[in-house]
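Quick one:
INPUT:
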């Protein structure tokens, strides 16, 4: 078939054993609908002439309805689904697929243009369907990557199989709705789906705290590898699920988690966890405190959990009684933790517990080198020397039969996904491209930026640079001043740089003068416009001086717009003086959905003088617990006359982790820290407040000098 019309004609009367072959090329804006009834051993097939050479682009989608259907070897790229699903195992609410298979499919960055607009890349309806050997990578908009949709019409007892897929990098969404897999919903969670999820790789799946969100019963999660993925395998709803023989490799990456346990009759056995660095809900093992007589969408009490023969090696925390509060006050009951191996990182106690642990029976566990005092017994302290076996995993000496089984064999990466399409993990790094020397003058920087590529570095010579256009940054780029002398940037537009989708920016060794900017609303040195879809970007400013931002009442250094999300904003060894706004304004998300504009903000070894607004205004609203951020670090700085215009030098609302150390406040506004959700941590050490109102924690009315 060479076009959509030919395919539609050929697909009207397909019989068991028929195969439809799509010709190599780009198929744009195509609605591929495969219907019919095949037979066991004689499915109706839809495939590509050459694997990977048929690219579905624009607003294309694939739907299956019938029985014994099989689709293979297609690529979705350079577009987005016209509706709510890219690949759907149904035609309508009355027609769905059973005993059907989708294999060898690639979905690569096939995202809605608006990150807030939700869709599911794959939706499995019906019964006895299989999704295997596929690659799904780069989902950036809201919605689950793969979802099992359950209802009484198309089936609750699904018995699907999801296996040998590569779920590649999914960047942090910064809100709820970024799961990689979800099976069911809270509404239908009291029934069994009996779906099998096995032998998949989850690599850099960072969308939200739940990598896999289980919301039904009777499911089996077996033989999967979770590599450097933020979040956890979460048994959020549903009963009688089994999590076995999975491997979690955090490699020390922050917020990498393991298994979170809720509800009744859950079995977690024979799993291996190494280098898992998460805490709280993302601990290597988190047993939740639940709610008595819980509503369907809340946390049901853990009852009859069986956790055995797991290895927790170089993990940060085990958390028993996670989430204990006034509502979640029902601790686990009739549960057992047995024959596990516990090894921490050596930097602190591996066990964190809250509430009464008497409902958990501990037996046959070993912790090296010593048992945590919080365990009520059943954990022996013993110094063990672990050795790495042929399977790549660490084990105690022979004869010490605790922890993961010795025949555990993580599925190799090359055995998941497809072999004809690359498994790309890393994005282009700053300073990884070519260097361009730029001479001073009028709009010379404009010309140099237009000629730059991803990862390039613009090396400025000493002198004055006059910029009369807003410099759009749509790829990773560095602008660096000279080792000797000064490169001064003067701009005559409301903004100097504007970060757009795909962009990241590093500024170093520069003087930036805003005195020529017009008196316009929303002025900023670096602006990230609302609606720009800029996300997962990095912004770094180092060894630079910024001044003269006084042309209106809110002239900011950095301003982030609604719907944008920075992975990191870092300032180091900068001097900022005489500005009317904020140094970092990241408070555009004023709703209660838990969204925010920056995952991490770090400011170190810098000086700020005569700043009209707060140094940083960082906001996260709502009470949703699906995100890890924001986090904020302020170390080794000096603030002088900062925030006097509004009596606030620092405004942190809903920030989860904040560290203020070795910083001096002189004649500046107060620090406001507002607790919003979760377990926010505020660390204060070595700070000095002189003629300053110190710190106020709004929810507790506590002022700390």
């Amino acid at each position: 078939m060479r076009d959509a019309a030919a395919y539609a004609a050929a697909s009207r009367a397909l019989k068991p054993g028929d195969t439809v072959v799509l010709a190599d090329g780009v198929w744009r804006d195509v609605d591929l609908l495969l219907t019919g009834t095949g037979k066991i051993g004689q499915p109706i097939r839809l495939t590509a002439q050459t694997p990977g050479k048929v690219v579905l682009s624009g607003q294309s989608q694939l739907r299956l309805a019938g029985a014994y259907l099989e689709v293979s070897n297609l690529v979705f790229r350079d577009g987005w689904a016209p509706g709510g699903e890219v690949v759907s195992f149904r035609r309508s609410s009355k027609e769905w697929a059973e005993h059907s298979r989708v294999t060898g499919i690639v979905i690569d960055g096939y995202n809605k243009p608006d990150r807030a607009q939700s869709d599911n890349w794959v939706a499995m309806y019906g019964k006895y369907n299989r999704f295997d050997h596929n690659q799904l990578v780069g989902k950036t908009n809201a919605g689950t990557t793969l979802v099992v949709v359950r209802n009484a019409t198309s089936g609750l007892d699904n018995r699907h199989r999801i296996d040998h897929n590569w779920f590649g990098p999914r960047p942090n969404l910064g809100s709820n709705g970024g799961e990689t897999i979800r099976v069911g919903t809270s509404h239908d969670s009291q029934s069994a789906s009996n779906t099998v999820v096995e032998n998949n790789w989850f690599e850099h799946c960072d969308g939200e705290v739940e990598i896999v969100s289980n919301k039904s019963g009777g499911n089996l999660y077996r033989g999967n590898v979770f590599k450097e993925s933020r979040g956890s395998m979460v048994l959020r709803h549903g009963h009688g699920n089994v999590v076995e023989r999975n491997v979690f490799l955090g490699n020390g990456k922050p917020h990498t988690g393991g298994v979170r346990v809720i509800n009744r009759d859950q079995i977690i056995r024979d799993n291996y966890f190494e280098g898992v660095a998460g805490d709280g809900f993302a601990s290597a093992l988190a047993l939740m405190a639940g709610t008595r007589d819980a509503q369907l969408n809340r946390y049901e009490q853990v009852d009859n959990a069986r956790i055995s023969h797991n290895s927790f090696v170089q993990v940060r925390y085990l958390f028993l009684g996670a989430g204990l509060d006034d509502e979640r006050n029902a601790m686990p009951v009739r549960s057992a933790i047995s024959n596990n191996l516990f090894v921490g990182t050596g930097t602190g106690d591996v066990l964190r517990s809250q509430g009464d642990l008497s409902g958990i029976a501990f037996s046959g566990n070993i912790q090296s080198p010593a048992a945590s005092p919080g365990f009520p017994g059943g954990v022996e302290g013993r110094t063990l020397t672990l050795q790495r076996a042929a399977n790549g995993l660490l084990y105690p000496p022979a004869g010490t039969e605790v922890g993961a089984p010795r025949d555990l064999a993580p599925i190799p990466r090359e055995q998941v996904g497809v072999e004809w399409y690359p498994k790309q993990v890393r994005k282009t790094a700053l300073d990884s491209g070519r260097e361009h020397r730029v001479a001073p003058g009028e709009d010379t920087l404009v010309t140099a930026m237009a000629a730059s590529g991803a990862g390039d570095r613009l090396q400025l010579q000493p002198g004055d640079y006059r910029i009369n256009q807003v410099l759009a940054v749509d790829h990773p780029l560095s602008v660096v001043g000279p080792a000797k002398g000064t490169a001064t940037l003067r701009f005559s537009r409301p903004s100097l740089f504007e970060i757009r989708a795909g962009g990241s920016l590093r500024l170093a060794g520069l003087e930036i003068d805003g005195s020529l900017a017009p008196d316009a609303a929303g002025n900023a040195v670096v602006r990230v416009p609302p609606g720009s879809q800029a996300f997962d970007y990095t912004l770094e400013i180092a060894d630079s001086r910024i001044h003269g931002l006084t042309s209106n009442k809110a002239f900011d250094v950095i301003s982030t717009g609604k719907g944008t999300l920075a992975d990191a904003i870092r300032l180091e060894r900068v001097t900022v003086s005489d500005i009317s706004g904020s140094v970092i304004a990241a408070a555009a998300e004023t709703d209660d959905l838990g969204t925010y504009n920056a995952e991490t903000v770090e400011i170190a070894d810098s000086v700020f003088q005569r700043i009209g607004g707060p140094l940083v205004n960082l906001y996260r609203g709502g009470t949703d617990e699906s995100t890890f951020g924001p986090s904020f670090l302020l170390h080794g700085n000096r603030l002088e006359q900062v925030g006097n215009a509004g009596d606030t030098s620092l405004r942190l609302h809903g920030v989860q982790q904040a560290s203020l150390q070795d910083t001096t406040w002189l004649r500046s506004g107060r620090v406001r820290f507002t607790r919003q959700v979760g377990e926010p941590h505020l660390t204060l050490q070595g700070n000095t407040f002189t003629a300053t109102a110190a710190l106020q924690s709004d929810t507790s009315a506590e002022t700390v000098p």
